[in-house]
Amino acid sequence: MISGNSLLDDITEKMTSTEYDDEKVDISLAVIGESLNLAYIAVKEVVSENHVLCCTYEWSADGKRDLLNNESRFSDDIWDRWLSGKGSSAGFWEWNLEMGVPCPLKLIQKNLAGSIIHIQMFKGDNFIGCIDFVDNKPGRKWSTNERALIVRFNDLLCEYLSKWHENKKAITSDIISSVYDHTTRLPRYELFCMEVEESFKELENSQLVILSVDFTNFKFINEKYGHEEGDLFLENVAKNIYAYTKWLISCCRSHSDNFLMVCKCDKIYTKARIINTIEDISRDFVNRLSEKYFDCNLCVNIGVHIIRSNTENIEQCISNANLARKFAKKKKHEYGHSCLTYDPAMAFELKRQAEYISDMKKGIESGEFFLEFQPQVMTDTLEIIGAEALIRWKKDNYNRLMPDDFIQIFERDGCIIKMDYYVYEQVFKLISERMRDNKPLFPISINVSIVHFYENKLISFIGSLLQKYAIKPEYINFEIDERIAVMKMDNVSNIIDELRAMGFRVYIDNFGSGYSALNTLTRLNVDGIKIGRTLMKKDLDRNDQIIIQCVVNMGNKLSLEVLAEGVETAEQRAFLIKSSCEYMQGNYFSRPLSIEALDALIEKQSL
Ligand code: C2E
Ligand code: MG
């Protein structure tokens, strides 16, 4: 072994140069590694302000470079400790396997670690990274000379890297964009999978939990606050994941607002305990997010797949967690949970959904879809003033499917547009035939899915129907789901204004179901509102009554027509009369009917 001084002279010479050269650092690491008889050295530098360290240089006695360019993100408290490390014990410390505590470092080859010296690098007062000197044998006693050598080498490297800092920044930012997501600074999917695979190796007493997370209505943040705010939201989620989950091994953003995480916990944790823990954490997290984006109705959806054996296929595990997330999103109201674990029955359900989407076109062509009409009446006299067209599907083996069985599936796919166009044409045709046959005419309400507001072809399609069937627009009402309240208002109000300019009446459907902000009514030029079925409970308690009365009062004062949906009992009707709600619809008067049955009812009334 050469003496410490001549070794440092040698290294100093290499590093005192007018040019930046990666290789000089590599050679210096090798020189010091061999002279101290080490197994491994890792240099880690700060590459962004987001609590991230990247392994920028690596030397190992066996020549392997497993962790080069890997990044680790640290939670706020650990990062604060890094920052305050200068001159303190946090800036220089030793670890030894014999201490009986796990190795505290993420960015080292753990199988090589028996004894470690960890030292931080500072430029002035700024923390710029650290170096780990690793011996594979536990219990190494570092001599005073060795410690001094390490400190002086650290100073030299620190100076060298600071000098070429700008240059390094450019280099590492290239590394980041290829391996790390630009927005959140989290690893990309491929790197995440490698990290999951790595953690498969140590499963004797533990289990891995894969989480797939996304947010209902994330798109509304982009729409309402702009894409920059959307990016900030994602970055914030990434930070919070690290701050919250002490069991976290790795995480990534696989796309859009979909995050994947892998956590490790002891095998004694039951499925129920895992789910409860996740739900507690996520509830707190979403409450805080909702304070900021209070008008976006944000919800978190979490799918979980628990891995207990290392024979499972990683891609399949991730896909199971994703599937469970989709179910959590869809069935939240049914199950009352934001977090679901994977169940093989979910895969069958998915198959059914795919089948519905692929069979829709055929169903339309062969007349499997048909309409029923639910009368809308004056609340006090029960005189029929119109009807709502509601779609049903008589699909091959099924008696008939109701909208709740397929509308959401079609909405998610986008093919709802095709189905709605079919409904609109049927209704226009029906009215023109009734005009021709001198049958009684009354306005028919048709439902407009929120998806039309992304497509922007609704107006021209309706224009072409008006031309083709030459009916009076006063016989068509449009019911627009209240979810539009959280969309970009300009676009929505333009479409509503155009429909009204064509002579149609426009209503907000399902008002009060949770999306409407009060100012929706003043910002959108609509003719009326339909109070949602969810507000019209069987036994209206005092609070329900107050809410309904307020909505009716508000509508009346704004000169809007107000119709209450889902009226089933005489008591509900009496309450509506008392509350001055002029119109109603519901099973109390009539369930949805075929057009022939509706005609018979109208005829009976006119006698
Ligand atoms: P919606 O627009 O709120 O329609 C009213 C729903 O309430 C209908 O359910 C109707 O059958 C039901 N309903 C009416 N009165 C009562 C009652 O007293 N009690 C109960 N429990 N239910 C009552 P349906 O036919 O299952 O339709 C569900 C939803 O599917 C509709 O809700 C609408 O949003 C959507 N939908 C139906 N047809 C179409 C369509 O052609 N296009 C689009 N985009 N959506 C449609
Ligand atoms: Mg409706």
Fold topology:
Elements: H1 4-15, H2 22-35, E1 40-48, E2 52-60, E3 71-73, H3 76-83, E4 92-96, E5 115-123, E6 126-135, H4 144-163, H5 165-179, H6 189-199, E7 206-216, H7 218-225, H8 227-244, E8 248-255, E9 258-266, H9 271-292, E10 299-307, H10 314-330, H11 332-335, E11 339-341, H12 345-365, E12 369-378, E13 384-393, H13 403-413, H14 416-436, E14 444-448, H15 452-455, H16 458-469, E15 476-481, H17 489-501, E16 505-511, H18 520-523, E17 528-531, H19 542-557, E18 561-564, H20 570-578, E19 583-585, H21 595-606
Parallel strand pairs: 10-11, 13-14, 14-15, 15-16, 16-17, 17-18, 18-19
Antiparallel strand pairs: 1-2, 1-6, 2-3, 4-5, 5-6, 7-9, 7-10, 8-9, 12-13, 12-19
Bound molecules: ligand C2E and magnesium ion.
Residues 374, 390-391, 402-404, 407, 416, 420, 423, 447, 449, 479, 509-510, 533, 565-568, 585-587, 592 line the site of ligand C2E.
